[in-house]
Amino acid sequence: MELIAANADIAAARAAFYPKLQLSMNSLLSSPQPGGVAVALAAGLAQPLFQGGRLQGAFDNAVAVNAELAETYRKTVLTAFKEVEDAAATYANSGRRLEALQLATEQAKLALQISRDRYRLGAVDYQALLNAQSSYLNAENSRVQARLEVLLAQVLMYKALGGGWSLADQNTDLADRAPGP
């Protein structure tokens, strides 16, 4: 909106360079001589010429304000594109990481099951079973953390694309979901 107003200011400053011709019935009737009307018209036409650079200064100022607002707008747009691109890359990378960790978790779970079976048969000691269980729990923890990263990346993407979020919205949603007495 400010950029549109700055464009209008440039148009107004440019229009100020042109003379304004104001005729009224009073000015025409009050001057009994045609020369008086001509003098009044000539004074109105010459008025923009003798402003001592004020009109040019106002025009230059309007152009400068417009240029500043245009650069601010460009910067805002570029920042928005960067935020969207960063959020998309983060989302894609976190999704790939989650897929890899899901596979690792499945494999660790399978290794734990095999270790349990081997422990029951007496083929391995209890320490081997605990190591397999520790590996599975670490893999599961990493998978859950990766899932959190994916969800946070989705929020960043949503915000970068212009979605709004506030703590008040979250509190309202939580209050709506809370079970009643």
Kindly describe this structure:
This protein is mostly helical and 181 residues long. It is 81% helix and 0% strand. It has six helices and no strands. The protein has helices at residues 2-15, 25-30, 34-46, 54-121, 126-160, 167-177. The longest helix has 68 residues, at 54-121. The radius of gyration is 37 Å and the shape is rod-shaped. The relative contact order is 0.08. The mean pLDDT is 81.
Keyphrases for this structure?
mainly alpha, 0% strand, rod-shaped
Topology:
Layout: H1 2-15, H2 25-30, H3 34-46, H4 54-121, H5 126-160, H6 167-177
Helix pairs in contact: 1-4, 4-5
Tally of DSSP β-strands = 0
In N-to-C order, the SSE pattern is HHHHHH
Protein structure class: mainly alpha
- State the major sheet: none
* Parts with pLDDT < 50 across at least 5 consecutive residues: none
Tally the helices: 6
Which strand-content bin applies to the residues?
under 5%
Helix percent reads over 70%
Q: Please give the radius of gyration in angstroms.
A: 37 Å
User: How does the overall form come out from the CA principal axes?
Assistant: rod-shaped
Task: Report a brief summary of the structure.
The protein has helices at 2-15, 25-30, 34-46, 54-121, 126-160, 167-177. It has 181 residues and is mainly alpha-helical. Helix 1 packs antiparallel against helix 4 (54-121) and helix 4 (54-121) packs antiparallel against helix 5 (126-160).
